[in-house]
Amino acid sequence: MDNPESRVTDEVRQTADAIGTMEIRGAATIADAAAKALRTQAEQSSAETADELRAELRAAARVLHDTRPTAVSLPNALRYVLFDADGATVEDVRASVVTSVVEFCDRLENAQTDLGRVGANRLRDGDTIMTHCHSTDVLACVEAAVEQGKDLTAIVKETRPRLQGHITARELVEMGVDVTLIVDSAARRYMNDVDHVLVGADSIAADGSVINKIGTSGLAVTARDRGTPIVCAAQTIKLHPDTLTGHTVDIEMREESEVIDPDEADEIGDITVKNPAFDVTPPRYVDAIVTERGQYPPESIVTLMRDLFGEGTTEPWVVE
Ligand SMILES: O=P(O)(O)OC[C@H]1O[C@H](OP(=O)(O)O)[C@H](O)[C@@H]1O
User: Fold this and answer.
1) CA 109, CA 302: separation in Å to the nearest integer?
2) Domains of the chain, each with CATH number or no CATH
3) Which of 58, 93, 104, 297 is packed most tightly, with the most Cβ within 10 A?
4) One biological process GO term for this chain (predicted)?
5) 318 falls in which pLDDT band (50, 70, 90)?
6) pLDDT of residue 320
7) Contact between residue 222 and residue 157 where contact means Cβ atoms under 8 Å apart
8) pLDDT of 137-174, one tens digit each?
9) Which member of 105, 133, 141, 232 is catalytic?
């Protein structure tokens, strides 16, 4: 058998590139795209044996995995799809992958709808929310509240350096929410006007820490200082199983050029530029984690994690 990595399809590689460059972004969206890419690997493969196809799928999973390190929805998606890739023939393996992907994507969509209903119950008619970055889980809560007839106002942080707050602003306007866009450093200035800070998550650790877009932890401290509740909307696919066994979550460091034009940096002189994409908000600054299974105080999220994952997991491409 030749090297399985050489048979990873162009579609898988294109999806991996799009995740790496953040053309495809957001933890739930990344999970959906990665699962669908594995399906294309299974469908387009010319493997002659079931084992060959499984080796190809593991190679494809690795290419997809090695794109962005922080959102655990990515390895969780790959693991879900590969878990049942058994079968004695190529056709069996292919069929089981297709079934898993369809099931996974349906569950993802349903989880977001269910989570949205839970989150909407926290919001009252006339409330003002503050958002950070762009999270489809957060927007599902707002959308459900609007569908319940609640009138909401939003203060949207632009979220440097990639300005995903602009996407949030656009989608909130489409829902009929009144939007005020602010620069990140104006959050404290407007906190007294806010009833709830709503953030998403890329990963949730077993101790209830929320790993989300850089700036979330500072926002949470400001919210706590002013007594404003901070709620994290995160489907259970954001729960990070490795943290059950003491691992920490890798924080992605992105290109300096997202922060400053390289020519300008050169002109300034000898400076170091750092661009961490995420930070860690300790559980004491978070009031609730809203999932499709209900809302949890961050400190008790570990019980849900043990229910879902047992004591831990292996990487999606490890042969057991
Ligand atoms: O899954 P949903 O709620 O859509 O997004 C969750 C999180 O993913 C995003 O990361 P990035 O923009 O991919 O770096 C943001 O940090 C956002 O809060």
Assistant:
1) 23
2) 4-111 (1.20.120.420), 124-309 (3.40.50.10470)
3) 93
4) pentose catabolic process
5) low
6) 42
7) no
8) 999 999 999 999 999 999 999 999 999 999 999 999 99
9) 133
